[in-house]
Amino acid sequence: MSERIYIFKGFERFWHWAQAGLILFMLVTGFEVHGSYKLFGFENAVDYHTIAAWTLVGLWCFAIFWHFTTGEWRQYIPTFDKVTDMIKFYAIGIFTQAPHPYHVNPQRKHNPLQRLAYLGILAVAGPVIWVTGWFYLFYDKWNEWGWDAFLSLEWVAFFHTLAAFVFLLFVIAHVYLTTTGHTPLAHIKAMITGWEKVD
User: Fold this and answer.
1) pLDDT tens-digit profile of 99-146?
2) Cα separation of 44 and 174, whole Å?
3) What's the pTM value of the predicted model, to 2 decimals?
């Protein structure tokens, strides 16, 4: 027997889709800046990338405020409870129609693997991409601020691109895992409507 429960609030859904769109756009413009292909033209790609980055910073400021004022930050506290069960489910269980080992509710929206993945993005990849992006943005000020003595543009570019690939892998894994619900589009529908069907 299953029921529909309201999991994702309106701002949560807006924040999720706006963030996803901005990150994808930054990946597209960022890899063009890196020289992977030509789409907007180098100068336009740099400008669009910078605008999207500042927009995402603004969105994250609102999201952080919302998470702390609503208590939703607790959804991201990492746990190792049922991690092994989740790994087995994603590796084998989804292909053998095994029951899902984790059941969401409004107080626990993310399974243990999701929480660990979000921790990695928020605590490691995010800071790397933002700090190196900041250095990139103010490259023309390095000499004036004395940063050129200990910074190398080559290494800033390397770590910024490495973090971008981590974000790309996260997006690919995230999109793949959205297809593991009751139907291939069930989780995507839940993030649009806010309602999740659970057993």
Assistant:
1) 888 888 888 999 999 999 999 998 899 999 999 999 999 999 999 998
2) 29
3) 0.90
**How confident is the model over 25-55, as pLDDT tens digits?**
999 999 999 889 999 999 999 999 999 999 9
- Burial (CB < 10 A; 0-12, 13-18, 19+), residue 65, is exposed
Q: Which of the four CATH numbers 1.20.81, 1.10.3230, 1.20.950, 1.10.3470 does domain 3-198 have?
A: 1.20.950
For the chain, give every domain's residue range: 3-198
Residue 5 sits at φ, ψ, to 5 deg, of: -130, 150
Supply the pLDDT for residue 94.
86
Burial class, 133, CB count within 10 angstroms (exposed 0-12 / middle 13-18 / buried 19+): buried
Q: What pLDDT score was predicted for residue 31?
A: 94
